[in-house]
Specification:
The structure is a homodimer. With about 450 residues, chain A is α+β, with helices and mostly antiparallel strands. Chain A has 2 domains: about 240 residues, Zn peptidases (Aminopeptidase), CATH 3.40.630; about 120 residues, Alpha-Beta Plaits, CATH 3.30.70. Chain A contains 14 helices and 20 strands. In chain A, strand 4 and strand 5 form a beta hairpin. In chain A, helix 2 packs antiparallel against helix 4 and helix 12 packs across helix 14. The two termini of chain A are about 15 Å apart. Chains A and B meet through strand 10, strand 11, helix 7, helix 9 and helix 10 of A and strand 10, strand 11, helix 7, helix 9 and helix 10 of B. Chains A, B: InterPro entries: Cyt/Met_Dipeptidase (IPR051458), Peptidase_M20 (IPR002933), Peptidase_M20_dimer (IPR011650). Chains A, B: This is Succinyl-diaminopimelate desuccinylase. Chains A, B: GO terms for molecular function: metal ion binding; peptidase activity; succinyl-diaminopimelate desuccinylase activity. Chains A, B: One of its GO terms (biological process) is proteolysis.
């Protein structure tokens, strides 16, 4: 029997596969908010049951946080490569809820100018992508009654909340998890219809601080004038993070460890099918707003950033409150590239703020936030060429090695803790609105993504 | 019978008066939040019943918003001045609730280093102050079986939410409300134990805007770098409102209509008993943070301000969300002095923001917010000297004509709409934490405030 039988089975079972995904999407497994702890557990149980239904020996593994799901199959194929597949079943929070056009956890198929989409939180990040691999395995097993090689399934429930349990878990289960290569489906295509394998990922540093001013909220009539206002002061601090002339981050030493992109890689990127206009349009931008000295693609893939993800203080309710609040709050994430060291960067960022603290204020840092370095992948391995060929066949368009603006810390941990390279193949599109209201996943991504994995499994097990 | 009988009655009835105030404070009449509409109505009913209990012909008057309370008594005293007493029964919101040491609407007496205080939202602003006058009338009526002069009671329920119904109501009921002079008890003493009559009030301009950037919330991995971040941009706008060198507001034309304080008034202020250190200590400040060229008292009483009262955007929940939000929000109030024109100032403020809007952003202004000019009171009228004498007797300390940092728009409307001067006498202290968690009113303010009004009524009706 040939790969075509598997592909045909995938085509014939698309409706059933979509229904399974919908069921999975209905579980509100928001990992960052303790309110949803039971739902994260439920999502893990759902995965265990689904893996068992295709003959995988799967189990839920407890952690101090949300459980991991592990499963293994095809160990008899000792002459074939051992693959580990990673995905995450947790999803982002849904606020602002009022901007959703349909309930985030009541997924539905929807017709759009770009074709049919699966609408709902997690449809793209990462439940839909995760299921492309599971559905490929299901079809393979259905056609062959077996699996092409030894496959270890590894699903996490804390990816959207900093993966606090991941490193200890990897260390504890190193033997079971160490495979020849890890497959990860949590990335997007460079452009619609352009199959992409990520060759480098940005790292991430998380920070949060509270600027404390007066000892109580004050009346802006009694104290307006002589009173220091933390909202004004935190705004000045945030404004000081960037140089408006160059668009560069102005924190001293921020760019230590950043390398320019080699000319040959830059040339590849220039021809990778990235549609700058489309990328900017998706966000409602007419121009790129980052470092003026770099192209939009470099700004996204190869340059570090400092972003404010949350900012709040004072009165947010209806009407007016004439208050000078005692505190202001700010959430920050930095994207890291090259050899930037998260710990060193954290120190520089804190120094930048502490050097600028006005009289009568203090800063309180959140001490529970982590960081991870950037990761450049060795794409010279034979598996990468095989996968590139399989993707090129499926999409009828040459697959590319792309950069990545996002951070997939697990890929770095696979390398540093298990000595295992990761191959990141994803089918998301830039307009999927992941982490945003109205998240969606193209039905084409789900369908051809599943077919792509079948072809990759075939290529890697030949 | 002499004034002393009235003062003795007040002393003897202090406990009962305090119980009545407690009952009034238990009604959560937050006017700015629609959730509490019924409670505002309940507070109005409570006042009507309490006025009736001392023989005042009182009634609740509906408005498009919260009701007004009106009452009249003593019309037979045609040879005496006609006084109007104004206060407001609505209170500020209570957030942040977690900073309260006791439930804001479960008032209680509490011993402190500065003596006994009445703790609870509205105890100082303005229910406690309002009741000082009502209790003085109660004692007077009890002793004399009548009232010293014609008194019109006028209580509002929208003072903390911009008084939307006030101007039309004043115009509609001009005849009933027009008296010889208005008495208002909603201000504080220059310093603990220094009886004060406000001689000028700052005006207020309210603004709120939303800065709109990308058309949806974005993933800070996909768009961090090229993406414009509204939280960073609104911070730059807020930082641009002031000149950090001088501490002055940097909005072009902001100071048009502002006059320097005359030397003789400045001399009065220098000797008015204002305790700068105490004032700054109450807020946890070691220095004044306003315009460097002016004294702390001038900054508070005689200089205009631009304050940020609320600032928010992006993720505020537990953990991290790697988002570039599509919007950022900001609430602003300006305090006005001299001849500053609210409408002209609004135009300048909006121009300042609109002139600085970055590419790919737009600003949306709240169009429902009002403004009121500053108000300088004619303190040469005989009533002011009479009241000053009465206060000096009660507090055994010369009463002063003080400035005011706050805004009491109604005083300006009494003048502009009814041609009636207002005399503002209040007994609050700067550490009352009005508009803040743990608001309190000194029992001494309540007791001696009541005695003060009895003396003022006596002096004004001689």
């Amino acid at each position: 029997m040939s790969i075509n039988d598997v592909l045909t089975t995938i085509d014939n079972n698309l409706d059933a596969a979509t229904d399974r995904l919908m069921e999975f999407l209905r579980i509100p497994s928001i990992s960052t908010d303790p309110t949803y702890k039971a739902d994260c557990d439920k999502a893990a149980d759902w995965l265990v049951a689904d893996l068992k239904s295709i003959g995988v020996d799967a189990k839920k593994c407890p952690t101090p946080g949300h459980p991991m799901v592990m499963g293994e199959v095809g160990a008899e194929n000792t002459d074939k490569p051992h693959l580990l597949f990673y995905g995450h079943y947790d999803v982002q929070p849904v606020d602002p809820l009022d901007l959703w056009n349909s309930p985030p956890f009541d997924p539905a198929l929807e017709e759009t100018p770009n074709g049919t989409v699966i609408r709902g939180r997690g449809s793209s990040d990462d439940k839909g992508q995760l299921m492309t691999f599971v559905e490929a395995c299901r079809a393979w097993a259905q056609v062959h009654g077996s699996f092409p090689c030894r496959i270890t399934f590894f699903f996490e429930g804390e990816e959207e909340s900093g993966s606090p349990s991941l490193i200890p878990f990897l260390k504890e289960h190193a033997e079971a998890l160490k495979a020849d290569v890890a497959l990860i489906c949590d990335t997007s295509m460079v452009s619609r219809g352009v199959p992409s394998i990520a060759s480098q990922l940005r790292g991430m540093l998380k920070e949060e601080f509270t600027l404390v001013g007066p000892k109580i909220d004050l009346h802006s009539g009694h104290y307006g004038g002589p009173g220091l206002n933390p909202l004004r002061e935190i705004s000045k601090l945030i404004a000081s993070f960037h140089d408006d002339e160059t668009g560069a981050v102005a924190v001293e030493g921020f760019y230590e460890g950043v390398h320019e992109v080699p000319a040959d890689i830059l040339r590849q990127w220039q021809n990778c099918g990235f549609d700058e206009k489309d990328y900017l349009d998706n966000a409602g931008y007419t121009v790129a707003h980052g470092e003026k000295a770099y192209s939009t693609l470099e700004q996204q893939w190869a340059r570090p950033t400092l972003e404010i993800n949350g900012l709040w203080g004072g009165y947010q309710g209806a009407g007016t409150k004439t208050v000078i609040p005692s505190e202001a709050h700010c959430k920050i994430t930095c994207r890291l590239v090259g050899d930037m060291d998260p710990a060193a960067l954290r120190a520089k960022l804190r120094k930048h703020v502490e050097d600028r603290l006005p009289t009568d204020t203090k800063v309180v840092w959140d001490l529970d936030l982590d960081g991870s370095p950037a990761y450049v992948i060795d794409t010279t391995r034979t598996e990468f060429e095989a996968a590139r060929g399989a993707l090129t066949e499926e999409w009828d368009r040459e697959a590319v090695f792309s950069g990545m603006g996002g951070s997939i810390p697990v890929a770095g941990y696979f390398k540093s803790i298990l000595g295992m390279d990761a191959m990141l193949v994803g089918f998301a599109n830039d307009d999927d609105a992941i982490h945003s209201p109205n998240e969606k996943y193209d039905l084409e991504s789900f369908h051809k993504g599943t077919r792509s994995w079948a072809r990759i499994l075939d290529a890697l097990s030949k």
